[in-house]
Design brief:
57% of the residues lie in helices and 5% in strands. It contains 14 helices and five strands.
Length: 271
C-alpha cells in the first residue's frame, strides 16, 4: 500500500479548512460576552429604549442574530449584508485614508442603523434589525482580523494548525482563543467585569468606531505568525500565552464601547 507524504496531506487539509471557513467574528460566546458587559453600563434611558425595541430579548441574545441570519436565502442577507461585518485597512493606511468601498462596510452600516434608531418614523421591525446589527458590529470591529489588510480576507486565507487541527488564523481569533478558556459567556463576562477598573472604563469610553478600528489594525499587524515558517504556523500553547490578554481586553473594551455607543444613540436631546 502506498503511503502518502504527511506534509502533502497537511497542506491539502489546510486548503479545505481555508476554503470552508466563515468570516464570523468572536463566535457566539464572544459576542454574548460583549452584550453582557455592555448591559451593565447602559444608561437608564438606553436600557428603557432597548427594552421597548427588543422586549424580553437582551443584548447577549441579540448579539449573534446577524451571523445566524447569514444563512437566510433572502437577497438582503446574501447580497447586501455581508460587508457590514468588517472593514478593510491596508498595512500602513488608516480607515480615514481608504474609506468605505461602494458596497459599504461596518462603518457605513453603523451610521445607517444609528439613523434608523434615531428616526421616530421607523417601525419596530426596522428598529429591531438596526439594534441587533449595531450590537453585533461593535463587537466585530474589536476583533483585530475584522479590520482586514485586504490581502487574505481577514486571515481566512492564512492557513494555520491550531492545537493539531488544520484551520485558519481568522477562525483562531473568532473562536479558538475564546473557546480555549472553557467558560460560558456568563462566566467569562463575570470574570472580565470583576477585573474591570473605573479607570479602564473612563479610558475606553469612546463611541467613535474610528478609534476601535485604529486599535484593531495596530493589533492585527502583530498577530500573524511567519508565513514562511511552517513551525510558526503550528499554533499551540505559546500562541495562547502571547494573546490571551489581548483577547480578554478586546472583549471587555467592546462591551464598554457598545454601552457608550448605545447610550449616545438613545440620549435624550433638547428639541
Amino acid at each position: 500500500m502506498r503511503h502518502q507524504n504527511p506534509v502533502v496531506v497537511l497542506i491539502a487539509l489546510l486548503a479545505v479548512a481555508v476554503s470552508s471557513s466563515s468570516a464570523f467574528a468572536w463566535g457566539k460566546i464572544g459576542h454574548r460576552v460583549v452584550g453582557e458587559i455592555a448591559t451593565q453600563h447602559l444608561s437608564g434611558q438606553a436600557r428603557a429604549s432597548i427594552e421597548q425595541i427588543l422586549g424580553s430579548e437582551d443584548l447577549a441574545e441579540s448579539s449573534t442574530w446577524p451571523d445566524f441570519m447569514r444563512s437566510s436565502p433572502d437577497s438582503f442577507w446574501q447580497r447586501e449584508a455581508g460587508p457590514y461585518h468588517y472593514v478593510t485597512v491596508p498595512v500602513g493606511k488608516t480607515y480615514e485614508q481608504v474609506g468605505a468601498p461602494p458596497e459599504g462596510d461596518a462603518v457605513t452600516a453603523l451610521a445607517k442603523y444609528r439613523a434608523v434608531l434615531r428616526d421616530p418614523a421607523a417601525d419596530l421591525e426596522q428598529r429591531q434589525l438596526a439594534l441587533r446589527f449595531i450590537v453585533h458590529i461593535v463587537a466585530d470591529l474589536h476583533q483585530p482580523l475584522h479590520a482586514g489588510n485586504g490581502t487574505d480576507r481577514g486571515g481566512n486565507d492564512f492557513a494555520v494548525v491550531w492545537q493539531g487541527r488544520p484551520t485558519n488564523l481568522h477562525s483562531v481569533w473568532d473562536t479558538g482563543l475564546v473557546d480555549d478558556e472553557q467558560l460560558s459567556y456568563t462566566e467569562m463576562s463575570r470574570w472580565l467585569t470583576r477585573r474591570l477598573r473605573p479607570d479602564d472604563v473612563l479610558a475606553w469610553w469612546t463611541a467613535d468606531p474610528l478609534d476601535w478600528i485604529a486599535e484593531s489594525v495596530q493589533i492585527r499587524d502583530t498577530i500573524y505568525p511567519d508565513a514562511n515558517d511552517e513551525a510558526a504556523r503550528n499554533l499551540r500553547w505559546d500562541y495562547i500565552y502571547q494573546h490571551r490578554a489581548t483577547v480578554r481586553q478586546r472583549l471587555t473594551q467592546a462591551g464598554i464601547r457598545l454601552a457608550a455607543y448605545l447610550n449616545d444613540v438613545f440620549e435624550v436631546t433638547e428639541q
